[in-house]
Amino acid sequence: MNEAFLLTGGNIGDRKNYLWRAKKEIEERCGKILKQSSIYETAAWGKEDQEAFLNQVLKIETGLSSEELLHTILKVEEDLGRKRDLKYGPRIIDIDILFFNNEVIDLHGLKIPHPQIQNRKFVLVPLNEIAAEKIHPVFQKTVSRLLSECPDPLTVNKFS
């Protein structure tokens, strides 16, 4: 079995319900959820003239390969109504693979660890809640250390 950390997020419609639906679909299609962070709210990152996002990190156990996991979560996004219109734009749901085991993967369309983990507090705060001692396989630093060094000025507030 493989261990993966996923970030779910969205800022359109009933944000909390979309996170719940994504979590349900992930458990049905990808594997068992071992841990889940609280839900956090953060102002939009990258394109700031939009509603705030809710985000949650899930740790899952999966029999899928990294590529199978990517294809499955893209299908979950699509089935929940995700439209890919604008980079960093508003979205109903977004699911990113943060880590997959301790692997470093660099394929077209699949980069693991996610290349922006260290620059985004909305990723690091919920990840730190459930995996503070997880070692980033490229930087060889714990998640808690990456969070303490993160240059992102956005405030991340616990939502629930």
Question: What does this 3D model show about the protein?
Answer:
- With 160 residues, this protein is of the alpha+beta class.
- It has helices at 15-29, 66-79, 121-131, 143-149; strands spanning 2-10, 31-36, 40-42, 53-62, 94-100, 105-107, 110-112, 156-158.
- Helix 1 (15-29) crosses helix 2 (66-79) and helix 3 packs antiparallel against helix 4 (143-149).
- The termini are far apart.
Briefly summarize what is shown:
This protein is an alpha+beta fold and 160 residues long.
The tally of beta strands, per DSSP, is 8
CATH architecture level-2 label:
2-Layer Sandwich
Alpha-beta classification: alpha+beta
- Rounded average pLDDT: 93
* Overall helicity: 25-40%
How many strands, what sense, and barrel or not for the largest sheet?
6 strands, antiparallel
CATH superfamily: 7,8-Dihydro-6-hydroxymethylpterin-pyrophosphokinase HPPK
Give the SSE order as H and E letters: EHEEEHEEEHHE
Features:
single chain; 4 helices; six-stranded antiparallel β-sheet; Alpha-Beta Plaits; globular; alpha+beta; 160 residues
